[in-house]
Amino acid sequence: MSQQTEQKQIETAIFAGGCFWGVEYHMQRAAGVKSVESGFIGGTKINPTYQEVCQKNTGHSEAVRIIFDPSETNYETLAK
């Protein structure tokens, strides 16, 4: 007897929109979004602190990684 399991698809989007707090706040409430994680992207220093990034001397940008279900939303909708 074979058992079929439904495999759920997820996709990832990363947005860097200035301060990540506002982006994170809105994305957590968006339909189809399964998780939101703030962090840093780019830059030259390994594991910079928030203060170092805010001083703008590491080359990093604040960013938000969004995991979403493409059957409920899409990248274009999230980017609006």
UniProtKB/TrEMBL annotation:
Its EC number is 1.8.4.11. Keywords: Oxidoreductase. Residues 12-79 form the Peptide methionine sulphoxide reductase MsrA domain. Gene3D superfamilies: Peptide methionine sulphoxide reductase MsrA (3.30.1060.10). InterPro entries: Met_Sox_Rdtase_MsrA_dom (IPR002569), Met_Sox_Rdtase_MsrA_sf (IPR036509). Pfam families: PMSR. One of its GO terms (molecular function) is peptide-methionine (S)-S-oxide reductase activity. Belongs to the MsrA Met sulfoxide reductase family. This is peptide-methionine (S)-S-oxide reductase. The lineage of its organism: Eukaryota, Metamonada, Preaxostyla, Oxymonadida, Streblomastigidae.
